[in-house]
Design brief:
heterodimer, A: 314 residues, MetI-like fold, 2 strands, B: 575 residues, alpha+beta, Dipeptide-binding Protein, domain 3, 7-stranded mixed sheet, 6-stranded mixed sheet, 14 helices
């Protein structure tokens, strides 16, 4: 287990370095001069050149990247000349709203997927099963931003159940404001969990131990809850973990549609502003979240299923 | 898409000529009436300084707002001054600008409307733009005298205090103007500076001597970057002053969340009491158009700016809100790269002008809200409404092209902001209309930063044609000098631009900007308008775009200055 853990952590660190390198190189390819963005189009050539030097942009790409990487290991993400603030001071306040949205969307997707998967599996190949699969196919195919706009029009404008946008004040205000975006995200990814879970449930329902449990006279609810679902969920844990990465890639769009102050909207504005340090910081932070969640999932999976641990050792 | 005569893009229907002339004359007359007060009052304004200001809001008896009914905006529509101004309330404003990164007016910002609006609220200036006009009136300077043919200005300050209670003195004004004039500090707007020396004659009198006569100097000292700062505090705090400003304006900085929102509260020491009426306001960065408009209609925000042209019909008459459309100094135009053949040929530029269906563009793209441009630099002081815009005439376009080095046409590209649907629509219309004179137009879609980078590069401007759409190109002042010099005398500045170099235009600009003689200025700017529109145009002017906001019905006195800033001290809220 120790060897497995060390190996996984090592892979995660390498993955993070790869993410920062890709983000660094990609933003360099985007046309536009950050110093010009900061000073405006009518600043003099000499002023732009002086600011570029002050920002260290006249150094080689390797020197710039090395500087960023070494500072990042000390949790120093540099300084944003655009916002005139340390990058960390821009990232941390927004991390909370993105994490809350991600968690809420994951919760909504699981809340939708589990009962529907169960119902679909139990009514396999009957109208209810087809209806569930058709409905989830539709929500999966819909672009999240479009789904978000439809939810706004329906549940915020026509029926003023939720706010149209913004983050609200206080915990309940945040949850109230995040319900529509979480729903937009959750409806999109629930089908992925549902299909995997449905398949697992179908397999598990045919297992001998389930038959044995029924033969011992256990109630159907107990059989479903303790034996079927519990054994079926293990495979879906991986899907949920992968979905977190998918959600984090979509928050960039959702946070802009709903005017949420998260890392996604920060990424969009910092790319527009050519704010290199912030882009790199956001990429690193989002990458770290995905890597950590996947690492925890793998470790938790190996704890749940010793065969994973043993196969790794072998 | 709104109904439009797409099938007429290939050529004007016979009746379009008549319609165009009727429409333009009606609009021109409206524009002339609107500017009548300005032109009549100019000589006294600039000489005496003291001005019997009668802005609409002071009466408190203004009527209700009018509704936009699909007509070109030549006068403000939708403004409301109902009830009596009273103190109280907070405004939340959803708009497309990120909070200003630092609030020292003489240090660099991006120079966009968002940054300058914050500075406008925090600091007062010697002069201020009078709402509803193109001219400046008294600000911190109660009056002034002009001597030596415009080389010397003496300002007499009113009694006023900074937000920390310190009295504003001539030394503070001297300090602020000297910072503005120092390119090492003011690296962004140093190009506006003509100041030579500043003297504090006594505690409330400042004398400014210019390096040369700058006709727009009174406008310059009303610019957001000439805001008066407290010398003692700035010298003590240094760069930290930009994060913790102490100003002379109607509002005080309260709090900021970088990249998200910024809040201001009333300055209790503001000289123009009982203003500001509102207790404070918050600017929220909401880049998504739909989210922004929905925030206003749902009551989350008190106002939303801008309203895209595509949404004008949708928000024309929504309960609880009103659509405000106000003319200002915006000019939407296409800039050819005059360093690149064949755009360095006058005949080619004239051909492009005549091949551009301005009426169709205004109807389809701007939903008829814009006013077709008859000037290359916008509706500024000395704008002549009588000069007709270039009509859509393919025969004339072909005739001019036949006289050029590319009589059979050529292939070129138009640089636009790809995420702006108006720009995409306009480019599509031009592809069709210019195609009929043999011009094969490709559309090059980029983001705004890339567009500005490619356009303003002085060493390697990377474009053939570049379209500046709504809110991208507007004068900071009502005088034509700022935009006029940029458009007609580009080589004066060391940042890139239009590279226009016509001896006649250059001579006129030099003359017009370096005299305070109103007769000469009116004559020269009028001649520049005519010459640079129909004889040797630097580009293709399209339309004067209005400033469009969606405002909660309870908010009164909310209006935009000609320079695209809002004097929020004039705003009040009806319960």
């Amino acid at each position: 287990m120790g060897v497995y853990l060390i190996r996984r952590i090592g892979q995660s660190v390498l993955a993070l370095i790869g993410i920062t390198l890709v983000a660094f190189l990609l933003i360099q390819l985007v046309p536009g001069n950050p110093a010009r963005v900061i000073l405006g189009p009518r600043a003099s050539v000499s002023a732009v050149a002086a600011l570029r030097r002050a920002m260290g942009l006249d150094r080689s790409l390797l020197a710039q990247y090395w500087s960023f990487l070494t500072n990042a290991f000390r949790l120093n993400f540099g300084y944003s000349a655009v916002q005139q603030s340390p990058v960390a001071s821009l990232l941390w306040p927004r991390l909370g709203s993105t994490l809350l949205l991600t968690a809420y969307a994951t919760f909504v997707s699981v809340l939708l997927a589990v009962p529907l998967a169960l119902a679909s599996a139990l009514k396999r190949n009957r109208p209810a099963d087809h209806a569930v699969r058709l409905m989830t196919m539709v929500t999966f195919a819909m672009p999240s931003f479009w789904l978000g706009l439809v939810l706004i029009l329906l549940l915020a404008v026509k029926f003023t159940v939720f706010p149209t946008s913004g983050y609200g004040v206080g915990v309940f205000g945040h949850l109230d404001s995040l319900t529509l975006p979480a729903l937009a995200l959750g409806l999109g990814i629930a089908p992925l969990i549902l299909r995997t879970l449905r398949g697992s449930i179908v397999d598990t329902l045919g297992s001998e131990f389930v038959e044995a449990a029924r033969a011992r006279g256990l109630g159907e609810l107990r059989v479903l809850g303790r034996y079927v679902l519990r054994n079926s969920l293990v495979a879906s844990v991986t899907v949920v973990a992968i979905n977190v990465g998918y959600i984090l890639s979509i928050v960039v769009v959702i946070e802009n549609v709903f005017a949420l102050p998260g890392l996604g909207s920060l990424l969009v504005t910092s790319v527009q502003d050519r704010d290199f340090p912030v882009v790199q910081g956001v990429a690193l932070l989002l990458g770290a979240i995905v890597v950590i969640i996947n690492l925890v999932t793998d470790l938790g999976y190996s704890l749940l299923d010793p065969r994973i641990r043993l196969s790794g050792r072998n | 898409m709104a109904d439009h005569d797409v099938d007429r893009v290939g050529g004007p229907a016979p009746h379009e000529l008549d319609l165009r002339r009727v429409t333009s004359r009606r609009d021109l007359l409206k524009g002339a009436a609107a500017l009548g007060l300005v032109t009549a009052g100019l000589p006294s304004l600039r000489r005496v300084g003291a001005f019997p200001a009668q802005p609409r809001h002071d009466t408190g008896t203004g009527g209700g707002p009018g509704l936009w009914n699909g007509q070109p905006v030549t006068e403000p529509i939708g403004l409301s001054f109902e009830g009596t101004p009273k103190r109280g309330g907070h405004i939340t404003w959803a708009w497309i600008y990120e909070p200003v990164p630092q609030m020292d007016p003489q240090l660099p910002t991006t120079g966009d409307t968002g940054d300058l609006q914050a500075l406008y609220s925090l600091y007062d200036r010697l002069t201020n733009i009078i709402p509803g006009t193109l001219t400046n009136g008294p600000g911190l300077a109660e009056s002034w005298e002009i001597a030596k043919g415009g080389l010397e200005y003496t300002f007499y300050l009113r009694h006023a205090e900074f937000s920390n209670g310190d009295t504003i003195t001539a030394n503070d004004v001297k300090f602020s103007l000297e910072r503005f004039a120092n390119p090492a500090i003011n690296s962004q707007y140093a190009w506006l500076n003509a100041i030579d020396t500043v003297q504090a004659l006594n505690a409330r009198t400042v004398r400014v001597t210019l390096q040369y006569v700058q006709a727009m100097f009174l406008d310059v000292v009303g610019h957001a970057t000439t805001g008066i700062v407290p010398q003692r505090v700035v010298e003590k705090m240094g760069k930290e002053f930009g994060k913790n400003p102490v100003g002379s304006g109607a509002f005080i900085f309260e709090s900021k969340t970088a990249g998200e929102s910024i809040s201001f509260k009333r300055n209790p020491n503001f000289w123009n009491s009982p203003k500001p009426y509102i207790d404070g306001y918050t600017l929220n960065y909401v880049p998504d158009d739909n989210a922004r408009m929905l925030q206003v209609t749902s009551g989350i925000a008190s106002a939303g700016y801008p309203v895209p042209y595509a949404l004008l019909d949708q928000y024309r008459d929504v309960k609880g809100t009103r659509l405000q459309l106000e003319p200002y100094t915006n000019i939407m135009f296409i800039a050819p790269n005059l360093k690149v053949p064949p755009f360095n040929e006058q005949n080619v530029r004239l051909a492009l002008n005549y091949a551009t269906p301005l009426e169709t563009i205004n109807k389809v793209v701007f939903k008829n809200a814009a006013q077709i441009a008859n000037s290359a630099i916008g509706k500024l002081q000395y704008w002549d409404p009588e000069i007709p815009y270039i009509p859509y005439d393919l025969d004339k376009a072909k005739a001019y092209l036949a006289k050029s080095s590319v009589p059979h046409g050529f292939t070129t590209s138009l640089l636009i902001v790809g995420t702006d649907t108006d720009s995409v629509e306009l480019a599509t219309i031009l592809q069709s209309s210019w195609g009929q004179i043999g011009i094969n137009l490709k559309i090059d879609e980029v983001d705004i930063v890339t567009l500005e980078d490619r356009f303003f590069s002085i060493t390697n401007p990377n474009y053939d044609l570049c379209f500046f759409g709504a809110d991208l190109w507007a004068s900071d002042v009502g005088a034509p000098d700022e935009i006029g010099e940029l458009m007609y005398y580009s080589k004066k500045y060391d940042f890139g631009g239009l590279f226009y170099n016509d001896p006649h235009a250059t001579a006129l600009v030099n003359q017009a900007t370096h005299t305070i003689n109103e007769t000469v200025r009116k004559r020269d700017w009028g001649e520049l308008q005519r010459y640079c529109l129909s004889v040797n145009p630097p580009g293709i002017p399209i339309a004067f775009g209005p400033n469009v906001s969606l405002v909660n019905s309870k908010v009164q006195g909310f209006q935009c200055l000609c320079s695209n800033f809002w004097p929020l001290e004039d705003v009040w809220i009806n319960s």
